[in-house]
Structures are given as structure tokens and as C-alpha cells.
Design a protein that fits this description.
The complex is a heterodimer of chains A (60) and B (1071). Chain A is an alpha+beta fold. Chain A has helices spanning 34-44, 51-59; strands spanning 2-7, 12-16, 25-32. Chain A has a single domain, classed as Rubredoxin-like, CATH 3.90.820.10. Helices cover 33% and strands 32% of the residues of chain A. In chain A, a hairpin with a 4-residue loop joins strand 1 (2-7) and strand 2. The longest helix of chain B is centred in the first third of the chain and has 20 residues, at 162-181. Chain B starts with 23 loop residues before the first strand and ends with a helix. The chains are: A alpha+beta (60), B alpha+beta (1071).
Chain lengths: 60, 1071
């Protein structure tokens, strides 16, 4: 089983549910099979660019 | 097992006509037939002797010893049995009891090291084969010192097994002690003898229990998982048995024993669980077949017999689904106990029933690894004025790659690892022992943990691996790919050079070039034109130009405009260009005057620099003021995805800057260097070339046209190129003389054959580079120096500065050196992901398990392992792994074997499309400088690889066709191979001997059609069928054919040739 995780740049990924997250990664809240987690990521991760880049571009 | 006792009546009614002369002639047991067959198959150097040494400390009574051995042989019919083959039947002849010779004592006490001298003699006696028509056992005594004697019983395996050893020792000791003490030995006469068992067992086999057991094995083994691949040497050497003896700490042994009791599991089951967890990590598979020997003494009356009872069973370890330790123990317990319950049906029957395919070099059907637990209680044999103890028995190693035997005397455990030293190094086996202990320890301390969470590596090993992976200070993290606004950008190093040396040549030829200052000004004007055209920060700009100054200027201009560089090779087919343009949706396209770029869509401007001269001249030549950050996208490269949909890899400025810094540090180029611009612009090697020149302030020289790619050697020489990055394939036709000006030669993009490096490395610095587009071009480097580094392709080396390379198993654990795993790349050069494919990005880019601050890694899908010097070896794509006839094959391993041939410059192994039976064929393609016959290469492979890995056909080419990326054009090769395929008619057996052999095979193997190149073992033949075949042919052709001949020549054509040779030799002898 996996869970959906994201970092401060809002880059999404998967991590085994049974293992603690590496530093800098937080749970998005979804837990499920690899397929279920990827389906969730497809929904929530709409812009590939890191958050800092999106914010700056948006501000510019 | 049935409950009927073994018949206690004498076996006299069988073959009673043989009773004359007091010799009983009886058919052999099935186990004996199996052992006899093994002995027949072995070459003369293979011994099936076992030596049981008994050490007497104190006063040694030779007469008592002589009495003991005579009495022993009287008690056990088996020890006075000989064997003969009559009318195709193997018979055991039981002789009447009589005096037995006890040789010695041989006095070794005068030798410098009596113990070593004894050991040497034991080894010699193992090698001294028995003539089974005369004797099966020998006794010798040795005198090692004043009060130390050793009595050695050397026995043929036909009449004993491990259990027999215990019986033999106990009986001799008791007979000796009783004789010395003048009392009656406490050994009741045996109620049954081995021959009784043989008959009883034969009847039992015909019964219903046997059928039930067979059903169990059919269920367990009908779909066998791939055979276990251990971290082997590059190529398999001559088979050589070696042993590694390991100790298990007392407290671990204690805890294991107690824990097994607590889990209600035999100790053997717990150890089996640990061993399968170890093998799963080493072999990278979750289903494993492991052989083990079972005592197969199903009745109490058999327990005191000496004889060969042992049967082989196959344990199927199942580690699927990442079970917890307790779940695994449960599964192992079931597997172990079920195997014991179904242990009686002869292994040969199981093999006959299931017909597993195997190649002749695979010594056993089903498995290459064995596991044994030998439990015993320390026996007290001491009595009178002499202490008797059993010294370690000596027996031949089982013909497998690896066998682990765990000896348990009470709670004291030790291991013996017998391994094929031609395949495995002692270093690897020693590591396996340590990792076995560590896994057992972790299992005991975390019974609720999942297998993926258990640590196999010690902290020191883990730290060393992480250091080698590029984690500079494990735990403190120094890379960090999180948000940061400071740091160099992709074009920073070019700006630096333009400021420092504006007059130095930057782009062009020796006589006609742009200086760094001029190039900078042109790039600045173009950048301003892009901005004027409405290109905003982070917007893609497609650049559709061939290699040349304009390409480099455009690259720089796009970056200077804060936009994203999207290169497109103008030589690509129009359809692909259209697809890339549609996917990239660029704001502007930069193209050549002459090129016909498909319309990128409404409102997209196409800039042709030459046509915009007036506009450009009005713009200032200074850099536009923009502030990209290291996290911004610098370029997007389209790679071909496996599904045909191109993937757009977005690479950050930080990644590019990391690469440039390492190029500067490692290659040490300067303003006097000339770097070749040669790669297709659609390939990130093109970016690498530009960075390598600009980072060093060197001149970038564009190859004049596409045709120059075909004559790389001349281009390098005529333009006095001093630095180049090319694919190894492109170097095949290049001579050492043509690279005489080249100071730095780097190869990338493909496995580098050693021959290329050896030919072109002398006289310059030669680097083998590896890296995927998804980790910014470059991840590892290996510098080839003069020192010979053995065989096989050149390693890909170590991570470049700042980059991390982990080799992980499917569970995400670091694997020890020598073990193949997936290469996983971390650090600042990890790409941002695939544009517009977030789902795929999340799947391929994962959290860095050893990173800080949200670092990510890229799962490369490449197979790699650490070699013993701490360099990475590349092992092909993980998804290239193919399964043919139940065997897992790495095309990379076959390629490595081919590359070891001195004439082979390049090798590529592909699988043909599946045939009607759903099986593909292994096709090998080689590029050779000199002409070499495919047959010679086939023989070369046969000598180095298991049969199932030997290519079905080998196609030799002078050079490989290359595609537009300069990589090998696989489709073209396959098409060529299709044309070369021989008509199937050519493979029909030739009239005469071949046809006759084929007809016998067809009958034995139940096949309609047998071709000349059909392999007996690949068609389901096994050792028993092999003997049947040989016996048949012996009778029909009247030639004495050794069974071995079939194993050495398993095809119809090969076997026919071998028979002709055998016959002619026989003729010569009879003359």
C-alpha cells in the first residue's frame, strides 16, 4: 500500500504506507494501491512547475 | 506415508536362481539407480565418495578396531554389496559376511603437520573411485601421535547418506568399546536390511499414497518461477567447488532455537525462512525454488540402517506481497512440513512428471541453490581408556551453484556454504553469510515487521554504500533541491567567459569564428527580439536548427530571455516535428531560412534570424534584465516513450549548472580547446557539448553537415578537435591516428565495449559517461586509465559531484556490492518531471529516501551493480529482461559475454517476435572489425553462458546501422535478420544417422517433428530419458555411448557427429 505525499514545492509522489516519510515530505491524505494514488495525483497536481516558480511567475 | 511396516522376511524369493554361491542378486532401489546414474554422468574427476573419520584419543586397540569393522560389515548387508548392470537392469549383489581388511596404521606422527597430512590423505581417498563391481567401503587407520589415532571409513555414496554416517560411527564406537571391555555390544541385530526396503519402496511407489504426493508436487512445481540468479562473475568459469565455513554467534543460535519453539515451527523452517529472505534480496525475485535433501526413512525399523535413502525435494519459497516476518514464518513452516509429508515420491518421478525445461549445464532440474539443516545431539562415545569422536565428514559438494548447510548441535549453530567458485567469489559468499545472520537477527527482533523493512546490511555497510552513492554525510543532507533563489543558471558560465575573454573564439572554425563577445551580443539581441515577440518568462521557444553557431546562439538567447529551450532536430520526419510542436506549444519557433517547419499553429511567430537582421540590428547587444532562478525550467527534451508518445522532460537551471560545474572540474578544458558540436539537437548530448565548450571558454566547432557523422574520424583529425562526446558505436570505425589531437574523449549513450576504450584511451583522457535525460544528461563517470580492469564492458563509474546514485532492490533497499538492482538517481540534477504528464512524473520521480528537504529521485529503469572497486556496472534496461521457456534472461548479460570475444566491437541482443508457441527467440547482433564466423561466436557463448542464454542466431555486421540520434537502429537490424533467416527446410535432420536419432527422440519426447538443431534438454529431455536414449542407441547401433556424450552434444546434429567420433575411436582401438 502506498500514500500520496508532497514536498514544499508541491511536487507530488508516492511513498510506501508503512514507512515514515523522508524529511520534507508530508501526507496528502490519500492511501491506496499504486494505481489509486496515481489517479489521485493526476487530479490534484495540475501544474508541474515547482510552487516557488509558479508563485513568482504568477506575481510577475 | 503408509503404515505398513517394511517386510521383515528375507528377500530370498526374489531372483532365487541367483542364490547359488551364497550371493543374493536383487534389483537396486530407485534411490540407488538415481545415484548410479549420477556417478555414470560425472566425469572421472567427480567423486561420490564420503569419508567418515573417527578420532581415538587414548590407548588405541588395533585388534578391537579390526574386530569392530568386520562386525560392522557383517551387521550391514549394504556394506558387503556390489553392483552390476545386467540386461539393462542394475543389480545389487549381496555377498556373505567375511573378514574385512583394516589397513594401517599409517604413521603420520613424524610429519611436520600430521593433521594437514591426514587431510591431504582424506582428499586423496575421496578422489580414489570405487570399482562398484568389487567393493563399496574401505577402512584405514592413521597414527597422528603417541595417543591419537584416526580410523577413516571411505564409502561410496551408493551405499550411504548423511544419516548413515551417524549410524556407522555409533556402531563402530560401540563395537570397539564392547570388544575392549569384553562385553556384548549393546546393538540388537537389525530386523530388516536395505534390500527389504528397496522392495517395499517399489511396491509403495505403485500405490495410492505415491499418486497423492505426486499431485502435491504437480501443484507446487507445474509453473516454476525463474531460476535463481546469484551475483555471479561476469562470465561463468570452469566449475570449481569451494567452501566457506561460517559461525553463528551463540546467543543468536539460542534465540533462534527458542523462537522456533515459540512459533511452533521446526528450527529448519525458521532458517529456511531466513535463507529465502536472503536469496530474495540477492536474486531480486519473490518466488524461489530451493532444493533440499530429505532423510526419507519413513519407518522406525529403517532408522538403524546404513544405505542410500536420501531423496531430493524442492522447496518453493513464496515472499510475494511483502509479508511480515510472522507471515513468512507461517508460509515457510507450511512449505517445509508439506515437503516432509510428501518426501517419499522419488525426485526422478517428479521430474519425469513435470518435465521442467533446463539446459545441459544446469546440473539439477528446477533449482541451482540447495539448503540443508543437519540437526544432531552431541553423542557421547567415550568409554574405557579411550575417547572417540567424529571428525567432520568429508563429502563431495552437490552440483549446484550454492548450497547452504546449517549444522545444529543443540543450540550451537554453524554454517557451511559450498559454492561454485567458477561462478561466485568467496567475497560474495562471505557477504551472504553475514547478511544471513543479520536478517535472522532482524527477524527475531521485529517479528511484526514487513520483509522490506528488515535490515540486511550492517550500519557500516549501509554507510559505506551511501558514501559510494554520493551521500556525502549520511543523515545531514547537503544537496537540497528545495526552493532557493540563488545559484548559477544554465548560461551563467557562458556569461562569465564572455566577460572574462570577449575576444576568445567561441563558435566556428579556426579561421572563421565568432568570439565570445560577438556571440554574447548576438544572443542578447535575439533574446530581446524574443521578448519583443511576446515571449514571457518560462514560456517554451522551439529551436529547429541543425548543429552550428546559430543553434548555440539560439540556445543562449532563449535562456537569456528567461524562456525554455525546446530543441527539435530539423532532420526529423515532418510528422514527428508536428507532434513535438503540438505538445510543446511554443510561443515562438526559431528556424532556418531553408527549412520547411510545419506550421506550429495560429499566432505563433517563426523567427528566421537571417530574415530579421534589420530588426535585430536596432536592438541593444546587452543582456536583457531578467532573473530566472535555479528552480526554473531551462530546457525541455522530447524523448521517445515506450508507447510511442514522446515524453517532454523538463530540466531545471539548477540541474544544468550542476553538470557544467562537474565538466569544468573533471575535464579541465581551456580556451585553446576545440570541442566538437556533433550530436543531434534533439538529443540532450547536444546541450552537453555546448555546455562543455562554454563552461571552459573553449571553441565549439560544428561538424560541417550531417554526412560528417559518417566520417567522425576524418572530422576529428581535419578540424584538430581536442574534445568530443560521442557514442561508442560512432567510434567503431575511428582509428587511433585520427584522434591524435583529441585530449579529452568522452563516450556516452550506450554500453562502452572494452575494445573501444583499449584502442582509443591511450594518449588522452577517456571517460565513459552515463546519465538519463531525466537526471540532466549526466550522472556517473568512469575514467579509463592504463590499468587493466578485467573483462566485460567498461564500468559507468561513480556519481558525479552532487549527484547520488543508489542501487535498490524492488523493495527499495540498498543492495550489497555485486547484486543487481535498479539505478536510482538523486541530487540537484533530477529533472522537474514530464510536462503535462503529472501522473507519470509522480510514478517515476519519488521521494529521496536518504535526502533532506523534499529531495526527489528518478527511477531510471536501468539495471546496475557496484563492483568490488566501488564503481557501477551497467546491466541494461530492467524492462528488457525477457522470459523465454521459463528462464529469465538479461540481454545485457549475453551482450557482455559476446563483447569479451576479441573480434567483437559491439553487441546487441534482441528477442524476436513470438512464434506460434508463444515463445520468442534470442537474436544476437555483433559488429566485428575482422570477419568472424557466427558459428565461432555461438561456440564462444556456449562456453560461457547457460544454454538458455545462448542466442538462437548470431548476425555479424561490419558496423551497425545508426538512427538519427547516433544510436543503434534496432528496427533496421531486425529487418536485416529477417531477410537472413534460413529456410526451415535446411534444418531437417539429414538422412541416415541424424534421421535415426531424430526418430528415437521423437518417440521418447513425444514430439512429431525434431529438427537438426533441436536440443534434447530444451524439448523436455531429462537425465532418465537420456539414459533410456543412450541404452536404446547402444543396442541398435552397437556402439558404447557414454551418457555424458548427450549432455555435451545435446542437438541432433551434434550428437550424430559425436557418435561418429566415438565409433571411429572404437574402430581404432579394436584394430
Amino acid at each position: 500500500m502506498f500514500k500520496v505525499v508532497l514536498n514544499a514545492e508541491e511536487q507530488y509522489s508516492l511513498w510506501p504506507q508503512s514507512k515514515p516519510n523522508p524529511p520534507g515530505w508530508t501526507d496528502e491524505g490519500t492511501v491506496g494501491t499504486e494505481e489509486e494514488c496515481l489517479a489521485r495525483i493526476e487530479l490534484v497536481w495540475t501544474d508541474l512547475r515547482p510552487l516557488s516558480v509558479r508563485t513568482r511567475m504568477g506575481a510577475a | 506415508m503408509t503404515s505398513e511396516a517394511v517386510g521383515t522376511g528375507r528377500h530370498s524369493e526374489v531372483l532365487s536362481e541367483e542364490r547359488a554361491g551364497d550371493v543374493d542378486a536383487l534389483p537396486c532401489s530407485l534411490a540407488q539407480q538415481r545415484m548410479w546414474l549420477l556417478e555414470q554422468l560425472g566425469d572421472e574427476a567427480t567423486s561420490y565418495n564420503v569419508a567418515f573419520p573417527l578420532k581415538f584419543t587414548g590407548r588405541f586397540d588395533r585388534a578391537a578396531a579390526a574386530h569392530a569393522v568386520t562386525e560392522l560389515v557383517r551387521r550391514h548387508e549394504m556394506l558387503r554389496t556390489t553392483f552390476e548392470q545386467r540386461d539393462g537392469q542394475l543389480l545389487q549383489l549381496i555377498h556373505p559376511a567375511g573378514p574385512v581388511e583394516l589397513r594401517g596404521p599409517v604413521d603420520l606422527s613424524g610429519e611436520r603437520d600430521p593433521a594437514a597430512s591426514l587431510d591431504a590423505r582424506l582428499q586423496a581417498s575421496l578422489a580414489e573411485l570405487f570399482d562398484l563391481r568389487r567393493e563399496v567401503i574401505r577402512f584405514v587407520t592413521y597414527r597422528l601421535g603417541h595417543d591419537v589415532h584416526v580410523l577413516v571409513a571411505v564409502v561410496d555414496h551408493m551405499v550411504c547418506d548423511a544419516w548413515s554416517g551417524t549410524v556407522l560411527i555409533r556402531d563402530i564406537a560401540e563395537l570397539y568399546q564392547a570388544h575392549v571391555a569384553g562385553r556384548t555390544p549393546n546393538l540388537p541385530e537389525l530386523a530388516v536390511q536395505y534390500a527389504d526396503y528397496g522392495e517395499w519402496h517399489r511396491e509403495w511407489i505403485a500405490g495410492e499414497t505415491s499418486e497423492r504426493q505426486l499431485r502435491y508436487w504437480r501443484r507446487e512445481l507445474s509453473e516454476p518461477p525463474p531460476r535463481i540468479t546469484l551475483p555471479a562473475r561476469t562470465s561463468r568459469g570452469q566449475r570449481r567447488s569451494s567452501s566457506y565455513l561460517g559461525t553463528i554467534p551463540d546467543d543468536l543460535g539460542q534465540r533462534l532455537g527458542l523462537w522456533a519453539q515459540g512459533q511452533n515451527c521446526p528450527l529448519a523452517g525458521v532458517l529456511f525462512a531466513g535463507f529465502s529472505a536472503l536469496l530474495a534480496r540477492y536474486a531480486g525475485q519473490q518466488q524461489l525454488l530451493i532444493g533440499t535433501l530429505v532423510a526419507n526413512r519413513p519407518r522406525p525399523e529403517l532408522e538403524n540402517l546404513i544405505g542410500f535413502f536420501t531423496n531430493t525435494v524442492v522447496l518453493r519459497a513464496d515472499l510475494d506481497g511483502d509479508p511480515t516476518v510472522e507471515e513468512l514464518i507461517g508460509r515457510a513452516r507450511t512449505t517445509w512440513l508439506d515437503a516432509q509429508l510428501n518426501q517419499d515420491v522419488p525426485f526422478d518421478d517428479v521430474v519425469k512428471e513435470l518435465k521442467p525445461s533446463r539446459s545441459p549445464d544446469q546440473q539439477q532440474p528446477f533449482f541451482d541453490v540447495m539448503f540443508q539443516v543437519v540437526e544432531s545431539n552431541p553423542a557421547d562415545l567415550t568409554g574405557g581408556d579411550c575417547a572417540i569422536e567424529l571428525v567432520e565428514p568429508q563429502s563431495p559438494a552437490a552440483p549446484v551453484d550454492l548450497e547452504l548447510a546449517v549444522f545444529a548441535v543443540g543450540h550451537a549453530l554453524s554454517t557451511v556454504w559450498d559454492f561454485d567458485a567458477g561462478l561466485l567469489s568467496e567475497q560474495v559468499v562471505e557477504g551472504m553469510h553475514r547478511h544471513f545472520l543479520r536478517l535472522l537477527d532482524s527477524m527475531l527482533s521485529q517479528p511484526g515487521a514487513r520483509l522490506s523493512e528488515l535490515s540486511m546490511l550492517s550500519e557500516a555497510e549501509q554507510a559505506a554504500l551511501l558514501r559510494g552513492s554520493g551521500v556525502t554525510d549520511p543523515g545531514s543532507g547537503v544537496t537540497g533541491s528545495g526552493p532557493s533563489t540563488a545559484g548559477p543558471l544554465a548560461h551563467s558560465y557562458f556569461q562569465e567567459q564572455a566577460a572574462r575573454q570577449p575576444d576568445a573564439p567561441a563558435l566556428g572554425t579556426e579561421h572563421q569564428h565568432l568570439s565570445y563577445g560577438q556571440a554574447d551580443a548576438r544572443a542578447n539581441r535575439l533574446a530581446r527580439l524574443l521578448l519583443a515577440a511576446g515571449v514571457g518568462p518560462g514560456q517554451p521557444v522551439a529551436v529547429c536548427l541543425p548543429p552550428g553557431a546559430d543553434l548555440a546562439i539560439s540556445f543562449l538567447a532563449v535562456l537569456k530571455a528567461g524562456a525554455v529551450y525546446v530543441p527539435i532536430d530539423p532532420s526529423y520526419p515532418e510528422e514527428r516535428i508536428s507532434r513535438v510542436l503540438a505538445a510543446a506549444a511554443p510561443a515562438v519557433v526559431i528556424a532556418d531560412a531553408g527549412s520547411a517547419v510545419p506550421s506550429p499553429g495560429a499566432g505563433v511567430r517563426i523567427i528566421v534570424e537571417a530574415e530579421s537582421q534589420a530588426e535585430l540590428a536596432d536592438l541593444p547587444g546587452t543582456a536583457p534584465e531578467l532573473s530566472s532562478t535555479p528552480a526554473d525550467t531551462a530546457y525541455v527534451i522530447f524523448t521517445s516513450g515506450s508507447t510511442g508518445v514522446p515524453k517532454a522532460v523538463a530540466v531545471s537551471h539548477r540541474g544544468v549548472a550542476t553538470i557544467v560545474a562537474e565538466q569544468r572540474r573533471l575535464f579541465e578544458l581551456g580556451p585553446h580547446d576545440v570541442m566538437l558540436q556533433h550530436a543531434s539537437p534533439g538529443f540532450d548530448a547536444s546541450v552537453f557539448e555546448m555546455l562543455m565548450a562554454f563552461g571552459a571558454g573553449a571553441r565549439l566547432h560544428a561538424a560541417a553537415s550531417g554526412s560528417d557523422r559518417a566520417d567522425l574520424g576524418r572530422t576529428l583529425m581535419e578540424n584538430r578537435i581536442t574534445a568530443a562526446t560521442v557514442s561508442p558505436s560512432a567510434l567503431v570505425g575511428v582509428t587511433a591516428d585520427q584522434v591524435r589531437n583529441v585530449r579529452v574523449l568522452t563516450v556516452a549513450g550506450e554500453q562502452c565495449p572494452r575494445a573501444v576504450a583499449e584502442r582509443l584511451a591511450p594518449g588522452r583522457r577517456f571517460f565513459n559517461l552515463y546519465g538519463p535525460t531525466e537526471a540532466t544528461i549526466w550522472s556517473t563517470v568512469f575514467e579509463v586509465d592504463g590499468a587493466d580492469r578485467g573483462e566485460g564492458p567498461v564500468p559507468i563509474g561513480r556519481p558525479v559531484t552532487g549527484v547520488r546514485c543508489y542501487v535498490l532492490d524492488p523493495m527499495g533497499n540498498l543492495v550489497p556490492p555485486g547484486v543487481w538492482g535498479e539505478l536510482v538517481i538523486g541530487g540537484p540534477s533530477v529533472a522537474l518531471g514530464y510536462l503535462g504528464q503529472q501522473r507519470l512524473s509522480a510514478a517515476k520521480f519519488r521521494p529521496d529516501p536518504w535526502g533532506e528537504d523534499g529531495d526527489r529521485v528518478y527511477l531510471s529503469g536501468d539495471r546496475a551493480r557496484w563492483d568490488s572497486s566501488g564503481d557501477l556496472e551497467f546491466g541494461g534496461r530492467l524492462d528488457r529482461q525477457v522470459k523465454l521457456r521459463g528462464h529469465r534472461i538479461e540481454p545485457g548479460d549475453v551482450e557482455s559475454a559476446l563483447l569479451e570475444h576479441p573480434a567483437v566491437q559491439q553487441a546487441l541482443v534482441l528477442v524476436s517476435e513470438q512464434d506460434a508457441a508463444g515463445s520468442g527467440r534470442l537474436l544476437a547482433f555483433v559488429a566485428c572489425a575482422s570477419g568472424v564466423e557466427p558459428a565461432e561466436l555461438s561456440a564462444w557463448c556456449e562456453a560461457r553462458l547457460p544454454g538458455f542464454m545462448v542466442p538462437t542466431s548470431i548476425h555479424a555486421h561490419a558496423a551497425f546501422p545508426l538512427n538519427s540520434h547516433g544510436k543503434i537502429d534496432q528496427a533496421a537490424l531486425l529487418a536485416l535478420a529477417g531477410q537472413q533467416e534460413e529456410a526451415p527446410a535446411a534444418d531437417l535432420p539429414r538422412p541416415g544417422l541424424e534421421e535415426f536419432i531424430a526418430s528415437v527422440w521423437a518417440e521418447l519426447l513425444s514430439r512429431e517433428q525434431i529438427s537438426r538443431s533441436s536440443n534434447f534438454f530444451q524439448l523436455g529431455g531429462h537425465s532418465l530419458l537420456a539414459t533410456l536414449l543412450v541404452t536404446r542407441l547402444r543396442d541398435e547401433l552397437d556402439i558404447d555411448i557414454p551418457v555424458r556424450a548427450l549432455f555435451d552434444n545435446p542437438t541432433v546434429a551434434g550428437f550424430a557427429d559425436a557418435l561418429v567420433v566415438i565409433e571411429s575411436r572404437a574402430d581404432q582401438l579394436s584394430r
